[in-house]
Design a protein that fits this description.
With about 400 residues, the protein is an alpha/beta fold. It has helices at about 15-20, 35-45, 55-60, 65-85, 110-130, 150-175, 195-205, 220-225, 230-240, 265-280, 295-325, 325-335, 340-345, 350-360, 365-370, 375-385; strands spanning about 10-15, 50-55, 90, 135-140, 145, 180, 190, 215, 245, 285. The chain binds D-gluconic acid and manganese (II) ion (2 copies).
Length: about 400
């Protein structure tokens, strides 16, 4: 029986805010004590994680003095160097402070927009000091409940200007960040700007330096929007924009649950892992989730271990899927090739178009073909349920 014990080669990461989540929710107080950053680093290293990610204020309180900041960062760096854990990604908290209650980069107040840039640049300095190469931008408060203010187009322009500015700052400082936009449809705002992977991809094309920008898609976020996460990730991969990924789970149509990876939709999780493994995704696999509010500290580590273990089990299942002769025969039978027709459809030429228009098709036969998907899906389910 394989142990499914991760090593740093698996590149699993957690946020300080994930395993550090004390169980507070809109209806109730924290249910477990806050754990300090160096302790979290040591525990994650013990469990076989590769790295740890952070918002500026997960580590340094928003009102810390320069001396306090340096002491806190020093202790954190010591834990990193003791354990070998790295910080591949950093981000800014642009959602907790009341200053950001109506948006950060998209606030209607120019002073808030300027403060958001100021705070993000300081946070980028911290991330660079810790070695981060990916900078995530999750616009948690970038949205509205009320559209009467009439800022929809302005908000997009302000957002664009801010991202262009930050990209220039990164280049001017020599940080070389790759920025990853993280779409989410709602929560904490009623309607968040750039709500899905597709929206973010469209927006990136309008930036001054689109090559510096990609996606940090999250399983729960596309699921909240009623969309398929594997489909969204495939589109990001197709565009060369899968810069980072947030793994967790979620029931569709519910509040933002941040469940343990694979806990709710193991089949979608399987097709996601298969997609990442088949396409050679080499970035960090970040678990942006937290233990249930019911849990104590032991539950937190059971949660973290479970996220990684489930990924590794699904990775093994993906390999089994590729080696299963009956499954592969069904996959092969699903696809129909026709060399003669492909020669006509592969490249446009007036001759090909004329020849294709002149062809006749047996529509009834096309419509009558059974592609074998019921049988293939059942084989997949049996594989996942462990009877193959
Ligand atoms: C959420 C988001 C956040 C971001 C994090 C990093 O739903 O709250 O997923 O957890 O991922 O702020 O940018
Ligand atoms: Mn989320
Ligand atoms: Mn996230």
């Amino acid at each position: 029986m394989p142990s499914y014990t991760p090593t740093s080669a698996d590149r699993f990461t957690f946020g300080l805010w994930t395993v550090g989540n004390p169980g507070r929710d809109p209806f109730g107080e924290a249910t477990r004590p806050a754990l300090n950053a160096p302790y979290l680093v040591r525990k994650l290293a013990e469990l076989g994680a590769y790295g740890v990610n952070l918002h500026d204020n997960d580590l340094v309180p928003i009102d810390a003095s320069a001396a306090q900041r340096d002491a806190i960062v020093g202790d954190f760096k010591a834990a990193l160097s003791d354990t070998g854990l790295v910080v591949p990604m950093a981000t800014t908290n642009l959602f907790s402070d009341p200053a950001f209650k109506d948006g950060a980069f998209t606030s209607a107040d120019a002073r808030v927009r300027a403060y958001a840039l100021h705070k993000t640049m300081h946070s980028m300095d911290l991330g660079a000091e810790l070695g981060a190469q990916t900078y995530v931008l999750w616009g948690g408060r970038e949205g509205t409940e009320v559209d009467a203010g009439g800022k929809l187009l302005d908000a997009l322009a302000w957002f664009r200007d801010s991202l262009n500015y930050l990209a220039e700052y990164s280049e001017a400082q020599g940080y070389g960040y790759r920025f990853a936009l993280e779409p989410k449809p709602n929560e904490p705002r009623a309607d968040i700007f750039l709500p899905t992977v597709g929206s973010a991809l469209g927006f990136i094309a309008t930036l001054d330096q689109p090559d510096l920008f990609g996606l940090n898609p999250e399983f729960a976020h596309e699921t909240m929007a009623g969309l398929s996460f594997p489909h969204a990730v495939a589109q990001a991969i197709d565009a060369g924009k899968l810069f980072h990924i947030d793994l967790n789970d979620q029931k569709m149509g519910r509040f933002d649950q941040d469940l343990r990876f694979g806990a709710e939709n193991p089949k979608a999780a399987f097709f996601l892992v298969k997609l990442l493994e088949d396409t050679g995704y080499a970035g960090p696999k970040h678990f942006d989730a937290h233990a249930l509010r019911t849990e104590d500290e032991a539950g937190v580590w059971a949660f973290a271990r479970g996220c990684m273990r489930t990924y590794l089990i699904l990775k093994e299942k993906a390999a089994q899927f590729a080696q299963d002769a009956e499954i592969q025969a069904a996959v092969a039978a699903y696809r129909v090739e026709d060399a003669e027709l492909s020669a006509l459809t592969g490249t446009f030429s007036p001759e090909n178009a004329t020849a294709l228009k002149a062809r006749t098709f047996d529509r009834a036969a096309l419509g009558a073909r059974g592609p074998g998907l019921e049988a293939l899906d059942q084989l997949t389910i049996e594989l996942l349920l462990g009877v193959r």
